[in-house]
Amino acid sequence: MRAERLTDAVAEHAEGPVWSQGWGGLRWVDMHAGDVLSLAPDGGVGRRHVGAVAAALRPRSRGGAVIAVERGFVLEDGDGGLTALGELWPAAVRLRMNEGGCDPDGRFYCGSMHYDQEPGAAALHRLEPGGTVVTVLGGLTISNGLDWSPDGTLAYYVDTATNRVDVFDYAGGELRARRPFARVPREAGHPDGLAVDAEGGVWVALYDGGAVRRYGPGGELDAVVEVGARKVTACAFGGDGLRELFITTSREGLAAGEDPAAGSLFRAMPAVSGRPVREFAG
Prior knowledge:
Blueprint: E1 4-5, E2 14-20, E3 25-30, E4 35-39, E5 45-49, E6 54-59, E7 65-69, E8 72-76, E9 82-84, E10 95-102, E11 108-114, E12 122-127, E13 133-140, E14 143-148, E15 154-159, E16 164-171, E17 174-183, E18 190-196, E19 202-207, E20 211-215, E21 221-226, E22 232-238, E23 244-249, E24 265-268
Antiparallel strand pairs: 1-24, 2-3, 3-4, 4-5, 6-7, 7-8, 8-9, 10-11, 11-12, 12-13, 14-15, 15-16, 16-17, 18-19, 19-20, 20-21, 22-23, 23-24
């Protein structure tokens, strides 16, 4: 299967696509520009600046969005107003938020990474609906994709430096019993963002791999989507019946003219559909 290119190279480091009917469609981020992008019905791309970094976002159940920015979280109201929550670390600490998702109980998780990718410096944080932030995991390197199984009992997670997808039991509102789910050969690329489909398959974007791989519920590789850009960052289901897989790419670190489609948005039409995005309850 091969993905089609939907846009020009509109982003330097595109990440975190999310489809929400409440938004009227797809949003994603141009991370280092600090912008949230949106896909118009005519294929045009809107852009809104939200901070020095726009790392990840999810819809809020009351309207608007929760957005992970460089050192914490911002709440967008339904009318577009932005409210910044407290910073989790000072500017002198060279960390930034990176990627995340919402759990079945409506809490928003986002992990961090060091700007120099320092091993063990990152963590996974959880924003409670009331505004409290809890550190869930420490000792990470590049905290990346996170999503839950359709029944909400399992959570799939990537710390890119491990070159694997891990799985947790999700019980009592907590992540427990972390263990390997699928290992990605280094020559195939580095696991980045991920999305879980309606059948429990896990779709993993491969940075420097030019592809998205689907792993079945048992961890077996059973589908590959080829993408016309090497640095594939994340994927999400959307569109009519959630049958379209939207894929973001990056041109971070590339010279002008190198990998011309890098930074574009792509789309594939797999044989399975996705499931509605989980919303933040705050």
